[in-house]
Amino acid sequence: MNPPDPTPPDAGFFGSFGLRLGRYFVHGVLILAPIVVTLSLLHWVVFSIDGWLRPYVGLPGVGFLLVMFGVLVIGWIGSFFLIDRLFALFDRWFERVPGLSFIYSSVRDFFQAFVGKKRRFTKAVLVNVLADEVWLVGFLTDEDVTNFNLGAEYVSAYVPQAYNVAGQLYLIKRERIRPIDHLPSADVMKYAVTGGAVDILTPPPASNGKK
Q1: Residues 6+ apart with CB under 8 A from 127
Q2: Structural domain boundaries in the chain
């Protein structure tokens, strides 16, 4: 007795044509979706900023350019020593105002963790928390957590959640941390927040002079 044929019966011309159309449609979605989402987000940002300046600026896009130019000017002025000291005074003043201090310091530290001089998400690591053979992708954020009375052998590691802006902070022993030194931290972050759906290209090994 012959085994059953695993291939489905021929659906005819219209059936195969429909399958091809379905594949083309999915392929089109995969091409257009990232472009549309990116442009939609850019459109929302530009027109939101334009809306703030709408009584003064009527030409679309000009308000966005003015705000970007203003940010650049403030960054340039803030690079001077005296102006930087003045901003430091405002910084300390905001931290002492009840109610505002929590919001201001939280927002400031959040942005500095990503793009400031005190960036924290630059050391990608594997974190062993749940079980001996289960590793989480995270970032080493603090190597001195003695303020929590845990000892010098503990560090803090942040593990982002996939498709979410949330994450989990772990205070864990150094021995349960493995550094990811061979991959850029930005690529590791993308891999973590997309649930491993993106490809990470491992850089080629360093040349030792041998051919």
Answers
A1: 135, 136, 137, 138, 157, 159, 170, 172, 176, 177
A2: 124-193
